[in-house]
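note to self — DONT lose this again. spent like an hour looking for the file last time. sequence + predicted structure for the chain T wanted, 169 res
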Amino acid sequence: ILLLIRNPKDVATSFYHFSKGLASFPSYDTWDDFFRDFMTKKMPWGCYFEYLSEWSKYTDKENIMTITYEELKENRALGVKNIAAFFGIPLTKEELQLVVDRSSFQSMKKNSGKTHGAFGNIFFRKGGVSDWKNLFTEDQNEKMDKVFEERIAGTKLGKKLKYDLYCKA
């Protein structure tokens, strides 16, 4: 099992924009309304902090590899190499480069019409990290940090996310 996790602030930001693009999801007039629901577990897909907390129980199992979105953005080649090794897939240098090239956000966005049809533009918006800084108020940032510390900071997944967010920044 490959478990891909992401900074909860960017998850909230991404879900906010995603929900605005799909008629079947609740639509929010403002970021503040969305943030309130995100933090009070009123999302149709559940609570991200509970998701991380639940998965933290299984991260020691040898059939689970955890990687962060931020790790992949920082060094996609190393991430692909580690994922291939985890699954026992030998890759030549050429194959590795092909996967790295095709898995770039730009490449996936460019091909999203073929791979995801009409949903391509909804699924592939920016693909960056730290976009949350464009939406979060200082108060919202502090609230999310507090919940992160209370709920998942002490777990293995929380430590992995915290390292990526604060030690690499």
